[in-house]
Amino acid sequence: MRAKSFTIVALLVVASMLLAACGGGAVETVVVTVETEGGVEEVVVTATPEPAAAEPITFDGYSTTDIPTADPQIAEDVVSITYIENLFVHLTNYDLETADIVPEAATSWDASDDGLTYTFTIRTDIPWVYHNPATGETTQVLDDEGNPLFVTAGDFVYGIRRACDANTGGYYSSVVAPLIKGCSDVLNFEDPDNVPAELVEAIGVSAPDDGTLVIELEFPASYFLSMTPMWTLAAVPAPAIENFGTDWIEAGNIITNGRYVLHEWVRNVRRTLWRNPLMPADMQGTGNIERFVVNVVPDTSTGYSLWLNNDVDTSGIPDAELQAHLEQFPDETDQIPDLAVFYIAFRMTKAPFDDARVRRAFSAAFDRETFVATVRQGQGLPMIHFAPPGIFGAPPIDEVGIEFDPEFAAEQLAEAGYPNCEGFPQVTLLGYSGQSTLNWIEFAQDQWSTNLGCDPSLIQIEQQPFSELLAATAASTPDEDAPHMWTLGWGPDYADENNWVGDVLWCEGENRSIRTCNEIDDLIVEARQEPDQARRIELYREIEEQFFGYEGEVPFFPIFVRIAFTARHTWLDRVPALFGGDQYYNWTMDWDAKLAAQE
User: Fold this and answer.
1) Do 496 and 224 form a contact (C-beta atoms < 8 A)?
2) Residue 463, SS3?
3) Domain 335-562 CATH superfamily
4) Is 0.85 surpassed by the pTM of this model?
5) pLDDT tens-place string over residues 544-589
6) Which helix (DSSP H) or strand (DSSP E) does residue 131 occupy?
7) In this structure, CATH architecture of domain 71-259
């Protein structure tokens, strides 16, 4: 009877496979012939094939731009930072509800009495993983001896030292370098390719053991802990970087340690994240979305059409569609204040904007209230200085800065030698791609025509994809290749004024306007290092005045803080992040509701 049992089991397996191959799902019967010790018997077998595997819970989205980079030490834009947030763990994180600093790779931390040394306890159970896009398999990375690799304090040391290396080419290197002991010495070394080893070793970051990270500061920065969730300080995989160079971030090369893995990245076409099944359970996040699929589309109008057809879960709303959308879909609309301040910047080394009076004129001639009410359709608040409400040290929103003042604007332009814009040269204004930005820069062109007398043909407007705009306006781009003006925005990385006037405008940072150092920069350094919080508030008010007031330098002029409407289907539940990138691992989806809507 033993042989009989084995044969029936084998035939059942074959029958099941055949039924499944035929599309199965319903109960079916087959007659099989079985040879036993007593002869040949026919047996009726009832077979139910295995059900098809459940479709993974998938977020479908779109973007109008590619990911500029997935390298934590290089990223400087919200698209890149969002993907890095999900592919890599950071030293700490932000609580989405309270904005408090909470544990991530670091479970706890202590500061020395003098505020110069921070010691972090690092968990050592977060695996480095490799995802094979061809097979869809995610496996733990092994060392040369076959031992599994976990994130250690040494990986953070490697990442932070890498941020201090000028050859890495990261914008945010200049943001973290002034704080970390010895980092600026390496970043600004005259020969970046031959930095002495002892200078690198002197950077104030060390790992006494795998579970302990020590960071030493140049001065007792009261806001340092609020910077520790930043991607620039993240651990990165030395083996992948050393093996693949700049290509280490490509799908099929990349090694990660976050809640998701990179399954696909086809430039300017599509990118896909899959859940990392090897992440420790207590770090998986509260969300249930297993895959994120984002396709690149030419504009928001295309994306919004996809949303209307239930093909994507969220969307921006085109200006022309906004009022109709608000009326038709009030329950599927979010208005999100993300504290991002948008502005028009000047290349201060490129005539005629090398004259502060011209820059003040262009600022004072721009009617921010009308712009927000008409072009933005109420999606924001007018800004006349840089740091928005909610940021420590920011002046009240309606104080400090040049308001809409056509008379003052005309006076300034005349004093600069261009009365009624006579003799003014042709200049370029570069904006992001898309209709929304075109509306913005055309409004600016009209304002300068109406209030300054500048013929619209003098303001040549152009548009480029975001990544190309960043390259065109980089500090390293020669003046002859850079635009005279451009649109840009700054979202908060941490809740302190230093992240605004210090990290964006300090003359020794990666300053796109190419500012010359002066007394304002002395105030920035003083405010950064001042331990008394009341005095810091006073200093930041003075700094904002010297940048954006009626006698200010005006390297750019702030226009609005964004409070944008977005479309979101009700089956998706999310809490947008104010700092850093969106935490996809905390988003949830009612999958059945989504499937039902798509039928």
Assistant:
1) no
2) strand
3) Dipeptide-binding Protein; Domain 3 (3.10.105.10)
4) no
5) 999 999 999 999 999 999 998 999 999 999 988 888 899 999 999 9
6) strand 129-132
7) Alpha-Beta Complex (3.90)
